[in-house]
Amino acid sequence: MKLGKVSGNVLKRSVWKQIHTRRDEIKDSAGADCAIFALTDTHIPDMVSCMQESAVSVRDKICTEQKNVSFASAGTFGEPVRTMAHLIQKCVNNMVISGAEPLAVMITLLLPQETEETELKALMAEADEVCERLSIQIAGGQTRVTKSVNLPFAVVTGYGKLSKKTYGVFKTARPGQDIVLSKWIGLEGTAMLARRGREKLLARYPAYLVEEAIDFDRYLSIVPEAAAAVKSGVCAMHDASEGGIFAALWELAEGAGVGLTIDLKKLPIRQETVEVCEVLNANPYELLSGGCLIMTTEDGASLAAALQAEGLPAVVVGKMTDSNDRLILNEDEVRYMDRPKQDAIYGY
């Protein structure tokens, strides 16, 4: 199989179809980024009215981006990427788009034997810093040195609470709704590519442009726009991630069982992303897009205006439709959207 996210068809036939045990307490799990657990108080007769929901999200990632270099020879966790911050932030992102309040994370670290204690300490200091900013607690986990890995590997599990009142409210994408995007596409992938191809980019562009692209990680949180959207009539939310904006839009339509039409020219993209992708031969529409939130609503103009009023870039880019067609408009050209492909980040 190809590197990266396993395709939807493979997931359906080789993962989800192999799972046959079901429990009533699990409201969402297979195919969702955030699992919802229903909790009840057995001492209270009215179970339904007393039910509370618990949200869980899991993320994992190797803690270095360097290719073809061992952890020991790198002498550090690869490039200066805030790996733990990324993982924790993505857990939080998944929970907030489900309407949950993030509370805590548990962290599992698998480390090669060459790891120095100072490196472990730096990882945990980074994790604590981002948790303090997000007002969540590190609730535990496991740290193990093992011969089974030659690069550090982390798994972050996030926990949050979700009331019965908000459960399912933000999953109602329907035909006729407008599609709104926050910030810009390709942000996360642009930062990663700019770090990997820094010297090549500096040979063509001024340092300020390259450094700005590398710093796109600062846009990874979608918490502010999710909070603003909840107050402004949002119907469904989906965070763009691996596979880029095209994959995320496909997933939104597939999950809702409907179609969509997107105006390619309206998809918001930073000039830095355009330049980085041109030099490094990446498709910006199929590039990691963490930090971009997709929202559907009955009144896209009002939602976009509400986000803009809070200093959050947002634009209406298309509509959900009552067919299974996923269409991309590019001036006079109309074409069908392809199924999600391998993320462009794996090409460099």
Summed up:
Helix content is 32%, strand content 26%. The protein has helices spanning 8-14, 47-50, 71-74, 83-96, 117-134, 187-196, 198-202, 207-214, 223-230, 244-256, 271-280, 300-309, and strands at 26-28, 34-39, 52-62, 101-111, 137-145, 153-163, 178-182, 234-239, 259-263, 293-297, 314-321, 326-330, 333-336. It has a seven-stranded mixed beta sheet with strand order 8-10-7-11-9-12-13, with helices on both faces.
Describe the structure.
The structure is a single chain. By secondary structure, this protein is an alpha+beta fold. It folds into two domains: 8-163, 60s Ribosomal Protein L30, Chain: A; 178-347, Phosphoribosyl-aminoimidazole Synthetase, Chain A, domain 2 (Alpha-Beta Complex), CATH 3.90.650. Helices cover 32% and strands 26% of the residues. The protein has twelve helices and 13 strands. The strands form two sheets. It has a seven-stranded mixed beta sheet, sandwiched between helices. It has a six-stranded mixed beta sheet with strand order 1-2-3-6-4-5, covered by helices on one side. The protein is globular. Residues 42-51 and 65-81 have low confidence and may be disordered.
